[in-house]
Write a structure and sequence with these properties.
Blueprint lengths: L10 H13 L4 E6 L2 E8 L11 E10 L2 H20 L21 H14 L7 H25 L5 H10 L6 H16 L28 H10 L3 H13 L12 H11 L8 E3 L8 E3 L5 H5 L19 H14 L6 H15 L3 H8 L3 H8 L5 H15 L6
Antiparallel strand pairs: 1-2, 2-3, 4-5
Keywords: DNA recombination
Protein name: Site-specific integrase
GO molecular function: DNA binding
């Protein structure tokens, strides 16, 4: 004789709810599988199914086997029955990570919480944990909070309407508008939410062509500022960024030149180039970078420098916060340009030297397209004149007379 299924405290209430659903002729029943509740009934074929007619299937709500979960299951059964009657039932609302979250009546906070879990679960193998955390906090959280605030202020709006209102509350033709569109489009996709108008149409004209051209520091100015800095640890940070074109936080997450030079000394290899390795935990992951100029490794004493003692434990801080401390120190020492200008100057320097764009882009941790679109535009008349003179001197071609 087959062993009877284990009794559950909810079974009596579950039976009563199923009797109500049957009396209402909704065509759906709630079933308990362990400590989870699902729906079962005759439903249209799932996407990709070879079947053409409705048949008995399970709707995997996976709601907890509690009184609250049972109540939500009953509510969802009524919603699905109405959808079937109107011929608007869509499996996408109940499959995948969203698992009926939106149509089951979950509020916006619960939907955003589920989206956050999905965000981290689907990116674990793609990037470092610190990079993922920084992206979430910087590119998603601000706009999800803005959406939540919009929905609360205007509770008569549907979710798509609240999304459009949130996007339109950002400045047109701006980076914040673009990031907002990207974040909310990802949320809508997660929720299987059909947006009548693609959010990309709200991006406007923002792009690298819209950004202000930077007046980058000259190499002489970079050296002059280095010599003026009194704090040896922050002077070392400055020198590393100037020589290797590093992002603010990358200075604190790389193998310093002294370590690479020591390795080369042990293996009797030349030490003239002193490339470094940026760690996997950074924004764009592990990559190698060579100094431009190599002479600056010695000029800035990078083989002997020490980093400032700041919190770099990514369990208690973020890459963004580490980077912000660099920006703060630049302001404190009244450096007349931003930390990123050192990175941009490094990129333009590699162009003048003749380093292939693909190589420079790889060292900087971005695509060749971004590299070309951004840095070639920042070459000033001074830079172009220097490049022309260098090319003529290198080739020594004489014009026919």
């Amino acid at each position: 004789m087959a062993e009877l299924a284990a009794k559950h405290p909810l079974d009596k209430s579950l039976s009563q709810v199923n009797q109500r659903l049957k009396a209402a002729q909704l065509g759906l029943q709630i079933e308990r599988r362990g400590d989870r509740l699902n729906l079962r009934g005759t439903l249209p074929p799932r996407p990709g199914s070879p079947k053409l007619r409705p048949y008995q299937q399970r709707v995997p709500l996976k709601l907890p086997a509690t009184k609250a979960g049972l109540k939500q299951c009953e509510q969802t059964a009524k919603i699905i029955a109405a959808q079937l009657l109107q011929n608007i039932f869509d499996w996408r609302d109940y499959l995948g990570p969203v698992a009926g979250l939106r149509m089951a009546g979950a509020d916006l906070s619960a939907q955003i919480d589920a989206f956050e879990r999905h965000f981290f679960e689907t990116r674990r193998s793609d990037s470092s944990a610190a990079s993922i955390q920084t992206t979430w906090k910087k590119a998603y959280v601000p706009y999800l909070r803005k959406l939540h605030a919009t929905a609360e202020r205007h509770n008569s709006l549907s979710l798509p309407e609240a999304i459009y209102a949130t996007v339109q509350s950002t400045k047109a033709n701006s980076r914040s508008r673009q990031i907002c569109c990207t974040a909310l489009a990802a949320l809508a996709e997660f929720l299987n939410l059909d947006l009548p108008t693609d959010l990309k149409s709200f991006w406007g004209n923002y792009g690298n062509s819209q950004t202000q051209l930077r007046n980058l520091p000259s190499d002489d100015q970079i050296v002059e500022i280095y010599d003026s800095l009194k704090n040896p640890r922050w002077r070392y940070v400055y020198g590393m960024m100037a020589t290797y074109g590093l992002r603010n936080h990358e200075v604190f997450f790389c193998d310093a030149p002294r370590e690479r030079l020591r390795q080369r000394a042990d293996s009797l290899e030349p030490t003239s180039h002193a490339e470094i390795i940026v760690h996997e935990t950074t924004k764009t992951g592990r990559h190698e970078v060579w100094p431009f100029y190599p002479e600056w490794v010695e000029r800035f004493d990078l083989a002997n420098g020490e980093l400032p003692q700041i919190n770099t434990d990514l369990d208690t801080t973020t890459l963004q916060r580490v980077g912000q401390q660099v920006t703060t120190q630049f302001r404190r020492y009244k450096i007349p340009f931003s930390p990123y200008d050192l990175r941009h100057a490094w990129a333009v320097r590699t162009i003048l030297i003749g380093l292939p764009d693909a190589v420079a882009a790889r060292m900087m941790g971005h695509s060749v397209q971004v590299h070309n679109r951004t840095y070639h535009r920042w070459m000033t008349h001074r830079d172009q004149q220097a490049a022309v003179q260098a090319a003529l001197a290198k080739n020594k071609i004489s014009a026919p007379m």
